[in-house]
Amino acid sequence: MSFKKLGLSDALLKAVSEKGYTTPSPIQEKAIPQVLKGRDVLASAQTGTGKTAGFTLPMLQIITENPHRGKRKIRALVLTPTRELAAQIYDNVREYSKYLDVKSTVIFGGVNQNPQVRTIRQGIDILVATPGRLLDLENQGLLSLSNIEFLVLDEADRMLDMGFIHDIKKVLKLIPEKRQNLLFSATFSKEIKSLANNFLTNPILVEATPENTTAEKVEQKTYRVDKSRKTELITKFIKDGNWDQVLVFTRTKHGANRLSQKLDKAGITSAAIHGNKTQNARVKALDGFKSGKIRVLVATDIAARGLDIPLLPHVINYELPNVPEDYVHRIGRTGRAGASGQAISLVGVDEVEYVRGIEKLLGEKLQSEVVEGFQPTDTIEQLKKEAAENKARHQKGRRNARGGSQKSNSRPSSGDRKSKTTASRRRR
Ligand code: AMP
After folding, report:
1. Which helix H or strand E contains 426, and what residues bound it?
2. What residues line ligand 1, using a CB cutoff of 6 Å?
3. Which of 44-48, 291-295, 369-373 is the least confident region?
């Protein structure tokens, strides 16, 4: 199958060929002709499947087939959960529209709105946005959504996880009812199905691959190890294997910072990327990682979601996620575009349950090993006792810091997955 057979215009084919793509990926092969026919599409696809081109190419074709009259108005809207994903999709839109008369831009929170507003005022056809900033600008009367003909919800499952459902509903009320809709999601929970029922019209269902096929290209290993020795073991893997581009996942932002500092101390250049970092810091870390200046990128699930890091050879789960689907997303960062990759998970005694959940989702057992000199000795009881002691110490420290006063500004520390309202507010 060639891109030409999918019905794409010469201008798009030229841009695709300049990207070096020769054959469409399965999701592109299935989705592109349906979108070009004008159908609503419900697509099951995760990062790494080529889904971005799967919706961007036909969207560009549809927008240009019917050229704008007078001043450009926003006719296509792509909603994404994170700033990084928005920036990445925008990069793709720009590259693929190189030979087309199309103007596009991207908006997200955490940065000054004025340059974004200026670009929109000049007239654009396609807008890539995170929900918070989009609604902010709309509320201020700085953009209009009343001419939208084409709507894409990308990574819809993650949008719901991050508490964006109300924002999405608000956006749906602001855009015309008659439009073409695409919904991309890696998983299909009850909530996603209900969202799909709400806003898709007679959709075609397309599946990139079953949920776990990305995992098949990846060599997966788990290592049982004590919690307190995980950093030492990671350092050993990276140094012994001479690995120079490693993505490491932690469960919390604090954990990401701590690990990154320890790796730096051990002589391994690294950066942490998570929801508390400014947009500039995240972009800088990702650029440094891509260019090879930074050897290890330590990330939380939400921050890493959707990052386009091609041909990543190694992914390490410093801690396992408690949601098995997140494991599949994490290891989907390696073994891309036909290349093989390696995914290593460090498993403390308290994480063995998570391995079971992951194995159930994958339908296979994961290889479990112990590195010589790193035989685990922790027991669940001991970890529970330590956690209780830490908590008591922490509470005592807070009481002392308050000095008996009832007024306290201290807030509990938290990971990326805290309350949905906070997460949603923070992303605006
Ligand atoms: P995505 O799933 O959209 O994040 O894409 C994953 C990666 O695959 C990106 O680096 C794309 O540039 C690349 N890609 C997308 N489509 C193709 C294709 N047809 N052939 C080769 N690489 C592709």
Report:
1. helix 420-426
2. 21, 24-25, 28, 47-53, 308, 310, 336-337
3. 44-48
